[in-house]
Every structure is written in structure tokens, then in C-alpha cells.
Amino acid sequence: MFHVFQHQPLRLITQNSLSSMCLKLMLSRPVAFAQIWKSWFSSHSLLGKKNIILMGPPGAGKTTTGRIVGQKLDCPVIDIDDDVLETTWNMSVSEKLQDVGYEEFLEEEGKALLKFSASGSVISLSGSNPMHAAGMQHIKKNGIVVYLDVPTAVIMSRLKSKQMDRIVGLSPGISLKDILQFRKQFYKRWFDIRVLCAGDVAPEVVAEKVLDAVKRYQESELETFISTRSSRSGRSTEEDSNKLYFSDVVIQGLALDGGLFVPERGLPKFTAEEWQGLIEATYIERAQVILERCIHPADIPASKLAEIIETAYGENFSCSKVAPVRHLAGNQFLLELFHGPTASFKDFALQLVPHLFAYCIPRSCNYLILVATSGDTGSAVLDGFSRLHDTDKQRIALVNFFPEDGVSPIQKSQMIGCQKENAWSVGVKSDFDFCQTAIKQIFTNSDFTGFLTVEYGTALAAANSINWARLLPQIVYHASAYLDLVHQGIISFGSPVDICIPTGNFGNMLAAFYAKMMGIPIRKCICASNENNVLTEFIRTGVYDLRGRKLISSFSPAVDILKSSNLERYLHLIANEDGQLVTQLFNQLENQGHFQLQKDLLGKLQQDLVAGWCSDEDCLAAIHSVYSTTGYILDTHTAVAKVVADRLQDRTCPIIISSTAHYSKFAPAILRALRIAEINQNPLSQLHLLSSYSALPPIHWGLLETLKKTGNGDHQVCAADMSVLMSHIETLIQNHFM
């Protein structure tokens, strides 16, 4: 068996003699001692007995990078091709490949890997090693596998210039590009950490990125979360000892002090080169790269995360691009976010989050998810949790509260039609703000939550946009939209864009701002409100004032919101994470119905955000105008954003308008906008009438199927009373879990 162990002569020295030597060296040559100690300590703290295993396609720079990493850590470097395979076979790799052929070569290569053992080394795999499962399982047992992810176009250029002739699988009729694409599935299966190596990045830079990535992998305890209402300076020893990680906040949803969770160290940053390396990537590939940086592998390993992302976006979306960007007119582009199963942007989070949640929760407890919706979240969360594995459905249930008379008929039909054995909809005789506030109060009612845990072995969790995991998938589509414009040649990377979003609870807008923080060149985030324009007034004046305000029912019900929950996360950010100030502001809002930002914070806010609002009349006029000139039908929320974008954009750069829902969900308003005199009240008939227009985009497939199945489905309705809601929750737990 081929053995290589870390060469550490100091291990052979007795403790006393080592101490004596260190003391003499420290006194006589303090600088030399410091350098030696730093090298020894960094190597041992980073590696220990583990190996750093570099994996990637041929031409990724594994050998060169490995040597540099080994030098920095002062540890052995092993190149599998040169030091193992050619030594074992006593011939070159290319000769072996010619001698035995493709399939036999992979088997012989795998056997050599199975006989190999090392400790505390940097190992550079061959490009084909990952294709042998047993060999990779063996070598991964004692190592951290680092995937050097280089764009295919860059690899092809490198291999062409080197005239490499030993690519396993290369033969007449099979292109190099096909081989590289085929191998990606194996790389994705085995890696622990991904390092993006876009363009012609110097090997020294790649080596530093490898070391940073390995350090992050080993320091999972640093990626903690805090509440927007906690103060860094005022945190107790108990709070510091009870650290919360990604898996914790996915489960807990809302902080115990009523605040929202945010990452203590902020969001990861991507370099311009890293973003450019994703221009050619698919939506699913972009999602995996971005989410890997936001979710530590100690919470969800990269291979499991990849599986979850593929499940969420692989077959459940009707468009292969998942979130395509379509030119509308002039410098305006639509980000179509309605190709998921329930026809709204909520599908992006809620096809993903249920699987994250199921992975993170302990197996010893049942969970009831509480959701409040102003429309689109309801059907999306019901559909998402209904797609869990049967074993997960037995321990995870969901109840969706929505304003009984505050959603469109089709939205209500969807929520009724999406009910499953573990998911129910409850109409509340009030508005969305009551539903959302009620859920927050239930979560912070320790007597009630404690009773459910003790009596029924059931814990509560949230899947609203207040849950941190809901925001991450939204960051992905904002970043992807920008990269698509670059890919289409509309802009070059680095050129700014504006983004306009119909905004209610501020989650979608916050995700766009987060994408900007992570390196996407977004210039202005434009908030578009309907007549419930509290948020618009706040952005313009710094005064958040609910006194005397009553919710107005509009044609864009998903933004019929007066209390924007995710605004709290944004204010926490621009206030330099001053939890005490955030607590003061939102306590004042709760108790007095208003608060006012300090002048300096308002200045910061207005550097990032611009806002406007649109009446129902202008919304319908925009739908008619766009259809008349382009043949494209906007939904009512997208029309609100279109009107505001027309008013506020300065036309010096492209503007991406988030099309947050399919127009089919709001058929009565759309038919009215299209000047249809008589409108049948049956939702299915309305969709059939809309389909006769042969407009773009076509009628949503999933929505049509759901309505066909709904018929006269039933749901529960309750009064706007906290005790009644809690009674409903207890009854549902009894019926499902007991």
C-alpha cells in the first residue's frame, strides 16, 4: 500500500527538549521563531491529520495550486497522476490510457486510489478520479474535498493551448465540451467546498481562496445569527453561549425577543470575476453556488444542498430557464417569476424551504408551520410542503391563515385546492396585517408554545418571509436576472441596472438589496406600492405612520400591506446593527402607531431606495396599454411596478421590473383592464376566456390544473380573535399528530 504521512520531525522530539529548543530559538532569533511557529501552527490548525484534496476538470490548475497550498502550509504535496498512478503503473498516464482503453483505465485508476493513503497532505486528484465511486469514498474519509470550479470555456481554452492528449473519454464523435459537461455530475457529488476560479485568475490567488474556503469550512461556529433587536454591546454571557446557526433559525423562524434573524457576520461577497464566471451557468448552477456561500456545509452539506435545489427547480417550473428575463419595451425588462407550480414569485422560496426545513429539524419532534398570507404565499407554501417525502409529512404539518375577503377568487380557489393531508387553509375575518401580527404574537407566547410542546410533542415554526431561509432564494433570482442581461449582450458586467419591485412586506426588495451587497451592480431599488402606500411615504419622508390608516382592498392584493415586516432587517443593517434603536422604533410603531427615522439614517435609506405608488385606475390602464402595444399581459402587481418605473426611472440604464405573479391569478381585474363588458364569476370560465386572447405569456398550466381539481372544495373560517386562532391550532395538532 502506498503511504505518505506528514513529515514533522518535531514530533520525534521529547516535550522537554522541544521546550528547551523553542526557548533558545525564541531568545536568539525571535523573528525566525515567530515564522516557524506561525507556519507550524497554521498547518496543524488547518489540516491536522486531514488532507486537502483538490478536485476539478483537467486544466483546472489542481497541480499548481496544490504546490502553492502545500508551500504555504509547509506540508507534503501529492499529485495523483505523477506521484501515484505513474509510479504504480511504471508508465505515463497517456500510455496507460492508450494501452487499456477508457473503461479499463477508470477501473485501474480507481484501484490505485483504493490502495493510496495519506495524512496531513495536499492532494491533487486526476480529472477522472471522481468517476470511480469506491476510490473517492476511500480518499474522502480522511480529507476535505475542494472543487476548483473553472468555467468550461476557460478549461477548453487552456487544454487547447496545452494540446493535452490524455483526456479520459475523448474519442471521435465525443467532444471535449461534452466530456467536461458529463463530468460535472461527479464533481458535484463529492466536493465539500467549491472554489470559483473564473477567468485567468493567478494560481496564487486560487491557492489563497482554497485556504480561505478550508478555514471557513472548519470554523462553522463563526457563522452565527443574531436578532435585529439584540445589542452587540449589551449581549449577555448566556446569549453568547446560546449561539444560533442557520439550521436553528430555519426552525425557529422568529427571534424570542420579537426581532428577525440576520447573519452576525453579514452576507458573503463575490468578486466581479466570480460573478462573471456564472454568466454561462444555468439557473440551478447559479443557485447552488450562491446558496453554498450563504449556508455553511455544517448545516447542509454541499451535496445535499445540490439535491434539494435540483428537486426544487428541476421539474417543478414550466420554463427551463426558471426565471427568464424578457424585454418589454425601451430599456425595460421583465423578470418573469411566475413559472413555478402556483404562478407567483413565492414558489422560488417555497419549493426550496420545505426541504431545507425537513433536513434541519430533529427527528424527535413534530412541527406545525404557521403561515400568514396576503394571497400568493398560501398556495405556494401549501404546494411546497405537500411535495415532501411521506415520512416527512407525518412529522411536519402546516396551517395557512389568510384574510377571508382579502384575496382574489382565484387565489382563494388555489389555497383551497392546494390543501393536502398535512396542510390546511384557514380564512380569517380580518386583513393580512392581523394575520401576520397574530402569528408573531403566538410565537412569542411562551405559555402557549410550551403547552404544545409538553402536551403534544409539537413545536411551532414559521415559513413566512420573516424566516431567513425564505430570503435566500430571492437573492438568487435578482442576481441571475443581472447575469442574464450580461449573457444576452444587453450590458457588460459592471454596468448598473435599476430594479423595480411591487412591494408590500419588503422581502423581495430586501433580497434585491442583499444581491447588491453581494456584488451585483444594482444602482437603485425602486419600491412600487398601490394605494396602501405607507412604505412609499416612509421612504420619501422617514416617517412610518399607521395612525388613521385603514387597509384598502385593491386589484393588487399581495401588496395590500401596511406593516412591512422585512423593513426591520433593512433598518438594522443601515443602523450599523443597532438592535437597541431597532427595538425602540418597532416598539413605538406597535404601541403608538408610528416612528420617525433620524436624519442621517433617512439619508442612507434614500441613497438605496426610491419609491412611488399607483392607483387601481392607473394599474388597469397600464395593463391595457402594454397589451395593446406588445401583446403581453401584465398581472396587476407587475402593472403597479410598471407605472412606478415609468414615473421614476431616468432611462440612463436598464431597469428590471419584477413580474411577481401570472396574470391568470387576477382574471377579473385583467378582463376588466382589457375592456371585457361581461365577466363570468366562475374562475375557470375566466381563465378559458383569457386563453382565447392567445396573449403572452400563455395561461399558466399549473393554475389551470389546480382549478380543475378544486371544484367546491371546503376550508375553515374563523373570527379575528387570538384565542380562536390558538384553538384552531391546537385542534389541528390533535387531528394530525395524535
Automatic annotation (TrEMBL):
* Presence of the UniProt keyword Amino-acid biosynthesis in the record: yes
**Where in this protein does the record say N6-(pyridoxal phosphate)lysine is found?**
346
Please give the Pfam families that the UniProt record associates with this protein.
SKI, Thr_synth_N
GO terms assigned for molecular function: pyridoxal phosphate binding
Q: What are its cofactors?
A: pyridoxal 5'-phosphate
**Which pathway does it serve?**
Amino-acid biosynthesis
Q: Which PANTHER family match?
A: THREONINE SYNTHASE-LIKE 1
Name of the protein this chain belongs to = THNS1 protein
Q: Which organism is it from?
A: Prunella himalayana
> What is the name of the gene encoding this protein?
Thnsl1
